[in-house]
Amino acid sequence: MFLRRTILAAATAVVALAGLAGAAFAADPSWKNDVPVIRIGILGGENDADRLARYDGFKKLLETTFNVKVELYPASDYAGVMQGMAAGQLDFANFGASSYAGLWLDCKCVEPLVVPKEEDGSTGYYSVLYVKSDSPYQKLDDLKGKSLAFADPNSTSGYLIPNFQLKDKGYDPAAFFGSTAFSGGHEQGVVAVMKGQYDAGVTWISGQGDPAQGYSRGALRSMVDKGMLNMKDLRIVWQSDLIPNGPWATRTALPEAFRKDMLDFMMKLPKEHPDIYEAVEKGAGAGYEPVTNDFFAGIIKMRQTEASARRS
Asked: Which end of the chain lies in a sparser environment, N or C, as judged by fewer CB atoms within 10 Å?
C-alpha cells in the first residue's frame, strides 16, 4: 500500500502540479541565483531505491513550485548527510533529533524549520526494543547476555535514547548485553533480527494508531506498508520516554527568503499533497509544527554528555 501511494503521488505530480507554477511563485524566487539547485540529503536506514521512490513526488513538487532543479542525495548512513550539510554540499534535509543536534554542535551551520506532528498533535515519538515473537524473550531482563543491534550511531531512537535511558534504568547496554553492534539503519536492524543475526534491535514508532499496522508512522509502519514485515513476527519488550521529533532543516548560510519559502512549502504540504507528505514521513500524522533550536536543547545536552564520556 505504501509503495502504491508513493507511485501514485509521483504519477499525479506532473499533471496535478502543472498549475502551481503559475500560482504563488509565478516569478523565479529571489533566492534562485544563490540556490540554483536544491540539494536534498536523505538519511540512511532503508535501501536507495525505496528512499528515492518515497521522495520522488516531493522532488517534483519542489521543482514545479519554485521552478528550480532539485537533486536527491541518499546517504549510506546518517553521518553522510551531516557531513554534506556541514560542507555546504546539501541545502535541505530531514534529520533525526540526535543527528541534527550532533551537526549543530559541530558547526552551528544548520537551522530547524519544522517537526512532524503526530495524529494527536504531539511532536514526539518513541524508541522501542524488539525481538522476534517466536523467541523465548518476553521482557527486557530475559535479554541479559544476548546480542543487540543498534541502528546508527547518529540515530536518536536507534542509539542515543536507548543507550541513555537503558543505562539510567540499570541496563547499561555495554555491560548488560553480551554484544552490541550497529546494523547500518532501522530497516537493516529489523531484517537482521528477523533472520536471527541478533537477538534484539531498536527502532522507532509513533506510538499511535494500530500496532498491527506498525502504528501510524515509523520505521515499522514503513516496512509493513512495503510488505517487508508482519507485526505478528515481532514483539516489543521495552519503550522509551517520549522523544522530540526530528526536524526538516536548512543551512544557516542560505538566504532568509529561501528558508521562509521552505517553511511555507512544508506547512502547506500535508493538506495540499497528503500522499507526498505521508511518503516522506513514513505514514500519517497531523502536519508540521515550526520549531527553533531550543526544541532540541535536551538532545543537544545528551550529545554533549556522550561526547564528554567518550573523551574521559
From this structure: C
Torsion, CA 126, CA 131, CA 132, CA 133, rounded to 10 = -80
Q: How many CB atoms lie within 10 A of CB 237?
A: 17
Per-position DSSP letters for 273-310, written without gaps between them: -HHHHHHHTTB--S-EEE--GGGGHHHHHHHHHHHHHH
For 262-272, the pLDDT digits (tens) are: 999 999 999 99
Instruction: Please state the rounded mean pLDDT for residues 290-301.
Output: 95
Residue 97, pLDDT above cutoff 90:
yes
The pLDDT of residue 18 is 41
C-alpha count within 13 angstroms, C-beta hemisphere, residue 194:
15
Rounded-to-integer distance, Cα 154 and Cα 103, Å: 10
43 membership: H or E segment, kind and range: none
267-290: per-residue pLDDT in tens?
Answer: 999 999 999 999 999 888 899 999
User: 28-53 b/e with 16+ CB inside 10 Å = b?
Assistant: ebebbeebeebbbbbbbbbeeebbeb
Which residues does residue 303 pair with via DSSP β-bridges, in sequence order?
none
